């Protein structure tokens, strides 16, 4: 499961993890997903770029489609309301950097090997929120259903959560964050995240 986990939890690559031959969809969120897929695969398959160049290009592209603030808030849970604006900014930056450092290499490798089919099902949650679905097939033949939770901001749909076979991305680290906050406080938690001191989320 490590390859799949690495692919999905490399935050800059999360929305545009390894896709292949997705069908054209009618809903704007699914059309945007296909656009994201095409753009990132073009980077991943560019043999003229180094691994670090690929990571940077994908990160800059995904910044337009991932809501890091909402992802961070959901991952921390209730204690998020106790963070000051400065602490929130510092945490978001540290969390993003930690995820990239932990998973980016494996994510790129997975993007070259796995196959994904965008599924026709979609859930409209109201208030400009929708869930889209895909099926990931690993090189070993295992299949996983992945749902991407979007909300609309202007003409763009932004990802605020990802679920793999029903398991939520934002809950994977929540227990660690809650324990850290109790033990070290908010600033200590930010320092730990900045030092990449959390365990990898290999259980998903």
From TrEMBL:
InterPro entries membership: MlaC/ttg2D (IPR008869), Tgt2/MlaC_sf (IPR042245)
UniProt entry tagged with the keyword Ligase: no
Keyword Signal applies: yes
Signal sequence bounds: 1-22
Lineage: Bacteria, Pseudomonadati, Pseudomonadota, Betaproteobacteria, Neisseriales
Pfam families named in the record: MlaC
Keywords (A to Z) from UniProt: Signal
Gene3D superfamilies: Tgt2/MlaC (3.10.450.710)
Entry protein name: Periplasmic transport protein
Source organism: Neisseria zoodegmatis
């Amino acid at each position: 499961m490590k390859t799949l986990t690495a692919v999905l939890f490399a935050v800059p690559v999360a929305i545009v993890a390894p896709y292949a031959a997705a069908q054209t969809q009618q809903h704007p969120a699914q059309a945007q997903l296909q656009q994201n897929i095409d753009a990132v695969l073009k980077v991943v398959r560019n043999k003229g770029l180094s691994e670090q160049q690929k990571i940077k290009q994908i990160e800059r592209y995904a910044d337009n489609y991932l809501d890091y603030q909402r992802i961070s808030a959901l991952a921390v849970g209730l204690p998020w309301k106790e963070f000051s604006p400065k602490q929130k900014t510092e945490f978001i930056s540290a969390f993003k950097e930690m995820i990239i450092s932990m998973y980016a290499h494996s994510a790129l490798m997975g993007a070259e090997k796995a196959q994904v089919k965008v599924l026709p099902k979609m859930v409209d949650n109201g208030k400009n929120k929708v869930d889209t679905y895909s099926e990931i097939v690993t090189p070993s033949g295992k299949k996983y259903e992945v749902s991407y939770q979007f909300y609309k901001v202007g003409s763009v749909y932004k990802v605020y959560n990802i679920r793999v076979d029903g398991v939520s991305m934002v809950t994977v680290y929540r227990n660690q964050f809650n324990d850290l906050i109790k033990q070290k406080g908010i600033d200590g938690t930010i320092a730990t995240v900045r030092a990449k001191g959390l365990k990898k989320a290999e259980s998903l």
